[in-house]
Amino acid sequence: WTPNNGTLDWRLGYNMTGTIFESDPYRGLTNFNHTLQMRGRWRFLPRSALIYDARFSFIQYLNPEEKANSMPVRAELGYNGLITNNLGALLLVGWGSSFYDPNQSEKPEQVQDFDSVIGQAELRYFLSPGRSADPAATSSSMSSFALGFTRDFYDNYIGSFFERDRGYVKLTYYLGGKFVFIVDAGAAA
Description:
The protein contains 1 helix and 9 strands, in the order E-E-E-E-E-E-H-E-E-E.
């Protein structure tokens, strides 16, 4: 939905993924992840936008005695846009929580859940200045070099979750407007 010629952009979606293990010792880890996601932006300058992203997931294991089901929730709010013609920024900050069911050997008060700040910070240098007024089009159709950091959490097969704090560098280069070459490297704890 994009009223006022795209000044406000609102998206609602559903995603379902499944991981199926065929080997007997790991069949209990077979799971399905249902995600309801709402994201959008409000452009307040020609090349700048406030953005939001909210996700609610339900991760269901076929054998909940081996691995507990969970309901991770994430909500982030931030800024995406150009600071100068060649320098852009993406800043997202929010909160993430995982709600795990207790397994057979746990009491509800013993369950370890993630409950902390999540986000992303990125500075991007465009190798040539953009011509489009759309902040999303600018970042997706031009060669650039980015330096960033992300913090998030993910479901884990051993235990409940793992937290990832990752720094990264990324080079995106368009060759003749027909091919894209991407190099992404990072380090995470």
